[in-house]
Each structure stands twice: as C-alpha cells, then as structure tokens.
Amino acid sequence: MASVLIVAYWSNSKTTVTIMAKRSENLTNKRYQNILCHPSYKNEISNTLQNPKCVPYKCGRVVMDDIIPSDTAYNLLQIAKKVFALSESSGGASILDLHSGTISKGEHFINLYANHPDVFSPEDLLLTLHDEYWHSHIDKDTYPSFHYTSLLYLTDFEDDFRGGNFVFIDDKLNRTIEPKFGRVSIFTSGMENKHHVEPVTEGVRFALTMGFTCDKSKAIADPGTNSEK
Fold it and tell me: Whole-prediction pTM value?
C-alpha cells in the first residue's frame, strides 16, 4: 500500500455528467457502481503476477462517508497542514509520500526521512502532466504498481475550496464525486476507471491517496507490525 497526500491549488468542457455523491449528502450506506474490468487489468493480475486471488469478481467504484472516524481524518489534516506549511510545490499540486517522506518543494522533491526506500521512483515524481491533476488519466498508467485506488477527502467542496470535483470519465455519462471531509472513494485502478479532477479555482483541497497492489514485490510492510525502530 502506498499513501500520498495531494493538495490541489487553483490552477471546460461541456460533457453530460451526473453526480455520484453530493457534498450535501451523508451516505449511511456505500454507494457503488459495478463496471466491466478491462481485459489487460485482469490479465496482469492473474497471469503476469500470478495472483488470481487478487482479481476482483467485478470492477467498479464505491463511495462511503462512515468508514473513517472524524478524529482520525482531522489529525491527518492537521499533519498535512503543518508539513505543507514548510514546503510548497511550484506545480498544480503539492505532494507528500507518507511512507518514504518524499515531499514536493519548488520544482523538486526532497526527502524528510530516509529510513524507507522510496515508493515512487524519481521519474514518477517529475513535474509532468501527471502533476497537472486536471488532465484525464488512468492510475495504472501513472503508477504501475496500483491495482486498487482509495481516496480520503480531508476538506469540503464549496466550504474549503471551489472546483476540485473528482470525475470518472465514462463512454456516455461522466460521474462526479463532490469531496467531503471524511468521505472515502475506492475504485479499481485499470482503464475502466479513467478520471480527472476539476481545476481548483479557489481555496485548498486536501486528499489522501492510498494505492493497493497485487504485486507482492511492491508491497509495503505495515509499520505497526515492525518491531525495529
């Protein structure tokens, strides 16, 4: 699993969209949409990685509002604010990799602590189109080790920032998730879930990205089970 805090700052196309989860809603049950897995996604997990138990029965996306305690989300937000107060990216988003300690500073990345190998290579963290978060992309292409992606939103759409909605790009109808403090979205990372984030036009948007892998060689040990300091 990889954890990355992404803070999007301000930086139209007309498309038919529907809102999958509104900021004003309080989802007491998970809201989900099943979609067909892209063949390349299932083939890589099952055949290339030989990990068939990690292949989902169905691909899709889900949104939940009651999975993360409010105090946990609040503490994560306070940590993020303190860290990003010391370092700010010159690109469209400021990025902190919680595991390796890699953080954006100006046009470069620095390491806050060097006890763990980097989750992302220097090439992953270069200032590229991926840094411009508003471009449509597929997580599997951006970060090849990702097979499942999860996002925890730490700020509220409209209250803390304008713009910044998460948009799934589908063939006939795009689906939007409006960020809400404590809201979690989860989706398979293959081509079936192409997406982008609308440009933030005002305020600051905080989100925690968690990538889960089916590649055992890319797995990160749970720090809570490591007895070594």
Answer: 0.79
86-112 pLDDT, tens digit each = 666 555 666 666 665 556 555 555 565
Tokens representing 73 are: 């989300």
Specify the CATH number for the domain of residue 24. 2.60.120
CA nearest to 41, candidates 160, 165, 134, 139: 139
31 is catalytic: no
Q: Across residues 186-214, what is the average pLDDT?
A: 94
Virtual CA dihedral for 11, 14, 19, 21, nearest 10 degrees?
Answer: -10
Domain that holds residue 8: 2-81+137-214
> Which one of 61, 175, 183, 205 is the catalytic residue?
205
